[in-house]
Structures are given as structure tokens and as C-alpha cells.
């Protein structure tokens, strides 16, 4: 087989691989690696009553509109981990859930999404600094 034929076969194989990967995994050929797959697995849930007491207190403060203890409470959460459902920048806001005996803000957060911060569409809890989230349900 000549080099030209081998190159044509290799190009055809690469094109086939691209088509198969985009159809099997729901990827768009124009989407780069940083964007991740289009499919997101559903998140686990946690009831408000199952949150630590500090989490329940923070939920109350969120719906009251504050006051919040930390300057960073209520700031925009960028969802860089892409674990939460994809939304426009500014949709999500993060809040610190105090950890007893922790001098820093700790790893626990509540992230709420919605156009009105005091009336969020959905809230999520993480106790591992954004490595995982659970949707908060009543």
C-alpha cells in the first residue's frame, strides 16, 4: 500500500472516530475538552432537615436576604466545575456554611441559583468545597 493510500485510510478512520464519539457521548465536534460532555448525571438530594444546623441557619438567611457573616456570601459562583446545571454567569450565588472550630471559611457551602437571590429557583449543598453537590429539597 502506498503512503498516499495509507494517509487516506488514516484520515477516514479519524473522521469515523470523531463521528462515533460525538454520537455515542453526545459531544459536539466544536466543543473543546474544557467544556465537557453535554450530558449531566442527576445530582443526589438532601433534605433541609438533614443539613447541619449551620446549613439550616444559612438557608433561613438566604430566604431573608441576609445579613451574612462573610463578605463573600452572596457573590457569583462561576460553576467552573460544571457539576451544577449549566446556566448563564450570574445565575448562581454561593454562601458559607460555618464549620464549628474552623478558623477559615471551611469547605461547606450552599450554592443557590435564580434571578432573585432571596427567592432562589434551586439550592445545592457541598461539604467538600465544590467537588460534589446535592440538591436541597424540602
TrEMBL record:
Alphabetized UniProt keyword annotations: Hydrolase, Nuclease
UniProt-listed InterPro entries: N1-like, Ribonuclease/ribotoxin
Pfam families registered for this protein in UniProt: Ribonuclease
Protein name (database record): Ribonuclease domain-containing protein
Natural source organism: Polaromonas jejuensis
Taxonomic lineage of the native organism: Bacteria, Pseudomonadati, Pseudomonadota, Betaproteobacteria, Burkholderiales
